[in-house]
Amino acid sequence: xxxxxxxxxxxxxxTFLGITIIAFSFVRILPGDPVxxxxxxxxxxxxxxxxxxxxxxxxKPLVLQxxxxxxxxxQGDFGNSLVTKKPVxxxxxxLFPATVELGLCAILIATLIGVPVGVLAAIRRGSxxxxxxxxxxxxxxSMPIFWWGLLLIIFFSGMLxxxxxxxxxxxLYFFPNVTGFMLIDSLLSGQEGAFASALSxxxxxxxxxxxxxxxxxxxxxxxxxxxxxxxDYVRTARAKGMPxxxxxxxxxxxxxxxxxxxxxxxxxxxxxxxxxxTETIFSWPGIGKxxxxxxxxxxxxxxxxxxxxxxxxxxxxxxxxxxxYGLINPRIRVK
Amino acid sequence: MTDIPPTAAPVRLSDAAIRRRMIAEFWxxxxxxxxxxxxxxxxxxxxxxxxxASLLAPHDPTVQNRAALLVPPVWQEGGSASxxxxxxxxxxxxxxxxxxxxxxxxxxxxxxxxIALVGGIVxxxxxxxxxxxxxxxxxxxxxxxxxxxxxLLALVLVAVLGPGLTNAMIAIAIVYxxxxxxxxxxxxxxxxxxxxxxxxxxxxxxxxxxxFKTILPNCLAPLxxxxxxxxxxxxLDSAALGFLGMGAQPPAPEWGTMLAExxxxxxxxxWVVTFPGLAILISVLxxxxxxxxxxDALDPKLKRS
Amino acid sequence: MKRLFxxxxxxxMSAAMAEAKTFVYCSEASPExxxxxxxxAGGTFDASAHPVFNRLTEFKKGTTxxxxxxxxxxxxxxxxxxxxxxxRQGVKWQSNEKFTPTRDFNADDVIFSYERQAKxxxxxxxxxxxxxxxxxxxxxxxxxxxxxEKIDDYTVKFTLNQPEAPFLANIAMPFASIVSQEYADAxxxxxxxxxxxxxxxxxxxxxxxxxxxxxxxxxxxxxxxxGTPAIVDDLVFAITPDAAVRLQKLKAGECHLMPYPAPxxxxxxxxxxxxxxDEQAGLNVGYLAYNTTMAPFxxxxxxxxxxxxxxxxAIVDAVFQGAAVPAKNPIPPTMWSYNDSIQDDPYxxxxxxxxxxxxxxxxxxxxxxxxxxQRPYMPNARRTAELMQEDLSKIGVSVEIVSYExxxxxxxxxxxxxxxxxxxxxxxxxxxxxNFLSVLLSCDSAGEGGANRAFWCNEDFSKLxxxxxxxxxxxxxxxxxxQAQVIFKEQAPWFTIxxxxxxxxxxxxxxxxxxxxxxxxxxxxxxxxx
Lengths: 335, 305, 530
Description:
- The complex is a heterotrimer.
- Chain A is mainly α.
- Chain A has 14 helices and no strands.
- Chains A and C meet through α2, α3, α5 and α7 of A and α1, α5, α10, α16 and β16 of C.
């Protein structure tokens, strides 16, 4: 097992180097000049321009800049934002919990609804439930979530007034930032109504973000179940007169869960992409919105290191999924 | 290719017959799936709308009528029969814009899938066929691309290339291309073990011929399924880029761009927000329904379930 | 963490008291930081310079007039180059968990605040890597200020290189906020100089409490404030970049006041009895600048003809949704010296067509540059360009609309030999006409590094500006600027589009908010009815 993990990790090194090259080079060839953006309508003299570029280190040859970048990375220095002048890592970490909270909630919703729906649809294959839920899943899978979010805002916030429009918690509540997760911090604060407020802020964005993963998970669960239920051992168990719930519960479900868990794990990339849109629509102070804003502002160091951190994150989660998969399914390891 | 043996003619005939049988079988499975047929019909309608846009659209999609700003749809109070789905903030007919928008979406889908498919196949074939370090390098690069969330990478790429429809399509195609490359490579690797490949090689077929004529046709099924999936994702992602202001630029009646322009009216004029999104949803849904049908019909492993 | 706990309990306590008032402002953008000097965004100043800090001179609320701030009074030498400021005594610095001041505000703080920006070798000049003092530089302070001397603890003398009429207005700007030298020393000693930018200490009406990135900023009333203390106890900025969402929150009672509503929502806001709307012509101008060095646009008659072919009112209606006044002068009507006797060119396509023919221009095709971003002076440049395109096609001029990424747009539009007319605009920094006319239209700024995008260099016009700049008497200056506007109109280097109206929607419960012509949002005078 250890060798398996090590080989997987080693395998990641070149990929990670590739990621640094991409993150660095893409960002460096971005058109648009941060110095000009800082000057705005007023303009900037050529001398001042040169001075500022030099100060930011953009006058050196690209290769040198890359090695500078890599060297600083190894020391844990991700650079400073051009706009706020603060370390990128500090900013990333201060926004990260918001995205994680949103993402976890979304994946929770997707799993808790998607798996039972998929199982039920498989058991009652061809029933109206199967047809309705699978149609709904396909609609969800096809959903432009940026539009879906707007519709939910119009309906639930605008017309019904049930949910707040944006933000993470009502401003009436103010408590220390212990974990960075609003739901937990609001409970820790002991302030009445804080948790309810945090929850009501979280609900629409996480539903929007959950939409596509939910659809994928439900569909994947259904087909995995169908496949397993067709296998010989399940048929045998059934033929032996085992009660249906045991057949499904013990044999089918357990084996069907292997691909489903993989699917859930692989949703992280989907979630990150979804977070960009969801956070934009709901003014959610997370990583996705931060990246969009930084791209628009040509905040080179933020885009560069942000890309890197996000890619590293996706890689690590994928690795964990691989490892889990290896644990559940020893055949993979042997190969 | 001059050394075709004289016996080739009858073989080709039977080839055609086999192909006909395969298509008939495919259609049988495909038409079993009611959703897929509905999807196909909607998709064909969409193609028709796009092709005949200039005949169908009641108005020019970019002409502004300053006397009719934000007119609601016909069934609502204040609506006008000449603007069935209402007008936008500068008095353009929404229905006409949606009709012309179909052209954009289909065009985007076709272009993105073609670039990604061709690029992916070539890269995948190279990697799978030659193996060794070529394979390692190519697959590492693909891993790197896949490590980024697709929309984020596409966003940065568009920022690099400059916002606009062409660049958005290129960016999305680059992001999708590794999926095709991986599929092709996997298929090639398994096909390489087969006897017919060895046979062809022994018969003296060149590398190119082996790759494109012998192996590729046998890996097509998963590629077609992936292509359909990518088609719908391309429509979605390009709309998302448009929504974020990085895709097609106004006044182009691209659906995502229309949504982005409409965002400021979400509380005042629901129709400018609702219809473009609905158009995206319906087209993507139709393509996905078709994709499901295709997969069921082409993928023998899933036929059973 | 501990700091937050204490504030939390303080807030909980104040919430328990019935009369504690929390004012919530749905701000538009995250502050870049809390030290006003290195930044340039209005949203940053609203969260730093205005609530937390003061300056030697201040803008009188609701005007662009200068009044005493931390300087109680000042004397100007005969030749206009020496300014001697008498500082206010007994002004207390704020405190936080890490810092308790031992002394009041004095001359050392003033000198520190300026020198850290002026001197490249000052230990605080680069207290965060990559920091620059853009406003200090762009307001030409390095060329202007010769020396700053401390006469005694409460007297400071500024010596200028040449007389500069707008100087007192310049130092009322946010970048000239006075920071505490003692706090700086304490931070340096603690090895955390970056806290200067994270945990500001000032003399202003509000104390900084906490900032959660991209989400919330919290301030608390400063009970020791030297001026009239704030009315509300707590001030909260809820950062909400999207205009539609801001309005939703305002309607839902989640905030009391918001900036920059979408023009489309103005009518609905006016109709809503729970809201009220303040409005004022903004200190800005949107324009289309021709390249006056390129044929046929080097001919004023051609520029005039094009100006007459564009329906200005239609742009105001469709793009600004009526939330603007059509512009006839390059400076806004709220600014002193605005020449109201000037007649705008009429909208007359027929006459315009004739004028073009007379000028010998046929089959003209041109480019119009549309900015890719929304700015206070221009809500949608693309839409504006489209309207212009349609209007100009009616007199036989074909227009191609081009656009670039914003930074590139700014740079390329200033390149000599630029092809086409550029849509752009300007928002005033300090309410002085010089800040519009010299920056945007003088010969000096027509070259590289300037902002004169018409490349228009009219000697008579520039001479008037130069004279006005060294004239101290406001009446004389007014006469000079009025004359300059006449020349501008005759020569028509721009198609002046509009001065956008600033709207500030707020809850009907809010009273005492004063709109700033400079576009600042300040809250020490606001109150909320129960």
